[in-house]
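Why Diaminopropionate ammonia-lyase? Reviewers of the renewal asked for a concrete example.
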Amino acid sequence: MREKLKWIPNQHDVGQDNDGQITALLSNFTLEQVKKVSQFQRTYEKFEKTPLHHLASLASYLDVEKIWIKDESFRFGLNAFKVLGGVYAIAQYVANLLNKDIEDLSFEQLKSSKIKDQLGELTFISTTDGNHGRGVAWAARELGFQARIYMPAGSAKERLQNIINEGAHAEITAMNYDDTVRYTSHLAKEHGWVLIQDTMWDGYEEIPLWIMQGYTTLIQEVVEEIEQAPTHVFLQAGVGSFAAAVVAFLRQYYEHEITIVLVEPHVANCYYESFKAGTNEFITVGGDMQTIMAGLACGEPNPQAWQLLNAYTKVSISCGEEVAATGMRILGNPLNTDTRIVAGESGAAPFGCFYEIMTNNRYRQLKDTLQLNSASRVLLINTEGDTDKENYRQIVWHGKYQ
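Here is what the prediction returned.
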């Protein structure tokens, strides 16, 4: 039987800020920069902060001081956080075409016919497991442009239909996620379309950085609401863009070090394998990468995200399918007066790992390494709701996750 959790501590000194490259990367995620991002996003007329839940009863049950869960299933009515990155990247791209600063523009201005006449037709293209592509499709449609979205083999038909419903051309390929990224990059060059992808490579860094900056609105909302800093933050990895953006902001916002834990599925555990290698170079993994945690099925780290996460992550965890499934069921069936949280497979994975660490003596060493105790204040982010409702029911109602 495969181990529920595999874990590896960072073999380098965590939190050393004397690296010039790291310092340069951090400068993209200062409070001043994050405020510029959220200022634009808040110009959307239906913008609302997503809820931050304090699960007091669960915290007492697991013997920690606090458990906070930021619930991104409410973001823009799209059931996931990814739209924050897509909409900001597209807006920033359009602002550059107009030779304007984005802080001088609003969402409504970018939707105007005057802007459309200036720019003509634009088509945005992306690879997605579902949530990112839906966000890109939504943003393109809202701003009057076209979108083409490609999904890896095994993607859920419901997630495909959600993207089509946003007005985009969308299809599922026969390739895994990383090969589909390469395919869409080729299509973008061939047709003159604009690639909106949340990972980067040499020569393609600007747009992925804008996407990462777009994500920071959610962590700004968290720190504005909590009175005490978290001691521990569990984050989904994937390509690492989301986790790195959160970590880069928190590193500068709080004066003391926060214990960062990365989580990814066994079949797509490029960060775990990279930490295990113990060098400053990341490792890629391949294959079909079929997992219920579809949003985390990525085998190649974002290089800049890797630099940040390698600098500040305490422990990297690779987890089994049943761990995410357990997280979904517990969050959906709260204790006492705690709020019910509908968490999708990728959204629940970090909580599933945290719960396993706190309740399974097999992981006592990991619990001690992380110094999880009655004084711990743990922050988790539910990055998606039930974006595949049929699969959600199969897991939560029937316990089927294979």
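The two ends are 14 Å apart (CA to CA). This is the kind of structural detail the renewal will allow us to pursue systematically.
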